[in-house]
Amino acid sequence: MAHAIVSSLLDQLKSIAQDQVKEKWRLVTGVEQEVGKLTTNLQAIQAVVEDAEQRQMKQDKAVTFWLDQLRDASYDMEDVLDEWITETRKLQLDEGGDDDDDDDNDSAFVTFLTKVCSFFPAASNCFGGFKQLSLRHHIAVKIREISKRLDEIATRKDRFNFVENVSNNVRNPERVRTISLIDEGEVCGRVEEKN
Known about the structure:
The chain is mainly α. It has one domain (2-165). Helices cover 69% and strands 0% of the residues. It is built from seven helices and no strands. Helix 1 packs parallel to helix 3 and helix 2 packs parallel to helix 5. It is elongated.
């Protein structure tokens, strides 16, 4: 299960990186390195997660705790990435227009900023620029927090001496040969095969 979550996160990170290049969306300075570090950590974790899941089945409580922390961090990261994708798409749709669904915490500042921007005709997209900057900062803070958590999780994985790439052995185990123990005298039909 954790393998699927980590794979999904890696796919989302790849998709976001491609969107950033295509749409010229950038995160706050320094966060791109965090995203790169996240990707590296997730790839390292993905290599050992199947061995960890096998050990979890053997009632290894420390590994179970490690996998739980990995799942929690992965779900949090997935939420942040979903938020990033949703908000960037909203901004693209609302490009040039004002938003009426502002957060209550920022509503006074947003109202002030909107009034200030209206006095400067050259800055026609002033509010959108603020909204983009606010979004990028918000996402950047969350990415840094989750990146720190995944750093700790990736560091702790080394303590367990997991075996990398166990997937080939797990998915293709050698099949045990079986034979049927039927009394051929009691088989009805197929007379030709009987003799």
